[in-house]
Design brief:
The structure is a homodimer of 154-residue chains.
Chain A (H helix, E strand, L loop, with lengths): L5 H16 L4 E2 L3 E2 L6 E11 L4 E8 L1 H12 L8 H24 L5 E2 L3 E12 L5 E7 L5 E7 L2
Antiparallel strand pairs in A: 1-7, 2-7, 3-4, 3-5, 3-6, 4-8, 7-8
Helix pairs in contact in A: 1-3
Chain lengths: 154, 154
């Protein structure tokens, strides 16, 4: 897990939410996840495979934050996590990973993206199982928290 | 999403649990997931990428079934879903996908596996976001239910 993999994902989430939802998240300091547990209500997960490494990435949102993003992106606010919200989280997952992929390809780290899956369930946690360290990037907002977690082999 | 992708995953889960945990699951008929929602307490998720397609797979367990597999595989039974259980579910996810990968490679469908991630949270659901149909394979046991879900683009 290389440190230079962190910022492209962090910058990509800020950019996607600013562009698509006029939402400014406040990024906290990225750190290695040890005993820390990041809980959230809806998460997008995606696998990545390159010639030199493979890994996985998740983006987890508190429900009120996900619903606020939904309202700003699509002009509608469901009462809870429904299929439109999971579609949106899947799309955000694709866009954030695609943005990071372009930045990292310019630096000589190529990878391909699998298709995303979206987890829905109050207070769930995700544990990435790879050989390298898990990096957690917390984000604050007035509507709730978000987390990116990434892990790459090697 | 090709129908011949289904049986290798189904057979691989039965084989892994029989071999590793002396656990016989009763497979139910695989079906296309439409409005159906498969809930569970702990899930392994993995991305797959091949030259012609990409997709994702999840295996979801009820907590009592996951704990019974844990006891049979490792001789210990924690009180709930802890890191040892998520490690085991990640390993099962790798083994099942690896088994299916070998069967499918023999048939001319090659893919690479990303690293798995494990979701923990009571009654969570997973929605695979790909272009193809989502296939759900339910399994029964006296300890609880399990589900495989797979989805491939194209």
């Amino acid at each position: 897990m290389r440190a230079e993999f962190v910022n492209p994902f962090l910058a990509s989430l800020l950019n996607v939410l600013k562009t698509m939802a006029s939402m400014e998240l406040a990024p906290q300091k990225p750190r290695v996840k040890k005993d820390e547990v990041a809980r959230g209500d809806v998460s997008g997960l995606i696998g990545m495979i390159g010639p030199k490494t493979k890994g996985s990435m998740s983006i987890t949102f508190d429900e009120p934050l996900a619903l606020e993003i939904m309202q700003r992106m699509l002009g509608e606010r469901p009462n809870g996590i429904n299929e439109e919200v999971t579609d949106m989280v899947g799309e955000i997952t694709n866009m954030v990973t695609g943005g990071a992929k372009r930045i990292l390809a310019d630096r000589g780290y190529d990878f391909e993206m699998a298709t995303p899956a979206v987890v829905s369930g109050r207070g769930h946690t995700i544990t990435h199982k790879c050989d390298g360290a898990i990096i957690i990037m917390p984000f604050d907002s007035e509507y709730g928290k978000a987390f990116i977690e990434i892990c790459f082999d090697g």
